Amino acid sequence: MKIALFDFCDTLVDFQTADAYTDYVVQGCPCRCVRYRAMIYGYFRNLKWGAKFLARHGSINKRLNLWRIKGLSHSVLEEKAEGFYYEKIVPKLQEPVLGILKAYQQAGYGTYIVSGGYDIYLRFFADEYGLEGLFSTCLKFRRNDIFSGRILGKDCMGEEKVRILEKYFEGEVIDDSISYSDSMSDLPLLKWTRKGVVVSKYQYRNWPSAKGLEQIVLKDMEFECRYCDSG
């Protein structure tokens, strides 16, 4: 069994998708409760100390963004997710990394997304490109299919990614594995696979080589199928 694992945000797509999705849902939403919570969040974020606090505490910022869209139905959020995927994600896909993913598929690797983005829109990418699996942060809905404003279980970030992978692949014989991510927070994922590759946008960064990782720089990159060479 050969697997290729890809982070999504700033790796396969050129932005952070989680908060962007909630922004997309809020824009034009007729629900007064959503608009009211969005107004409170916006006021807090515009405070000088509020902005600094949210910048230092990304997980809290993520939860507050989800709180804004609490109470919306699954059908509404799914419809918004489809629009978000085609309007916002598809135009921003990073073609060199997408080409690498396709090359691994052609070479017989199972391809997977491992992302802190939300399952509700990432599944459109997984379906379109025929991925074997999607590991991501899931939204939590109540029994009446109303969004709770929270995530289901733990955020798919850092060490949690490795925990999910180890549970999923338990008992499997993995002959080769490779992972791609832009972020140092994904160091556990990058070190879990046989080879970890850091995706940088504009220039080489120092930390990947210091951690024994490979690196590609997208602005200088011409895609070649050699990236799926397991040697």
List the helices and strands and how they pair.
Blueprint (H helix, E strand, L loop, with lengths): L1 E5 L10 H10 L5 H15 L1 H9 L1 H11 L5 H16 L5 H12 L3 E9 H10 L4 E9 L5 E6 L6 H10 L7 E6 L5 H6 L2 E6 L5 H5 L3 E4 L14
Parallel strand pairs: 1-2, 1-5, 2-3, 5-6, 6-7
Antiparallel strand pairs: 3-4
Helix pairs in contact: 1-4, 1-5, 2-4, 5-7
What report would you give on this structure?
Helix 2 (32-46) runs antiparallel to helix 4 (58-68). By secondary structure, this protein is α/β, with parallel strands linked by helices. It has helices at residues 17-26, 32-46, 48-56, 58-68, 74-89, 95-106, 119-128, 159-168, 187-192, 206-210; strands at residues 2-6, 110-118, 133-141, 147-152, 176-181, 195-200, 214-217. The relative contact order is 0.18. Residues 223-227 have low confidence and may be disordered.
Shape: globular
Largest sheet: 7 strands, mixed
Low-pLDDT regions: 223-227
Compute the gyration radius: what is it? Answer: 18 Å
Strand content: 15-25%
How large is the count of helical segments?
Answer: 10
> What is the succession of H and E elements?
EHHHHHHEHEEHEHEHE
**Structural class by helix and strand composition:** alpha/beta
State the helicity in percent bands.
40-55%
Mean of the pLDDT scores? 90
How far do the termini sit from each other? 15 Å
The overall strand count is 7
Q: List the strand order in the largest sheet.
A: 4-3-2-1-5-6-7
Summarize, please:
The chain is α/β, with parallel strands linked by helices. The chain has helices at 17-26, 32-46, 48-56, 58-68, 74-89, 95-106, 119-128, 159-168, 187-192, 206-210; strands at residues 2-6, 110-118, 133-141, 147-152, 176-181, 195-200, 214-217. Mean pLDDT is 90; it is low at 223-227.
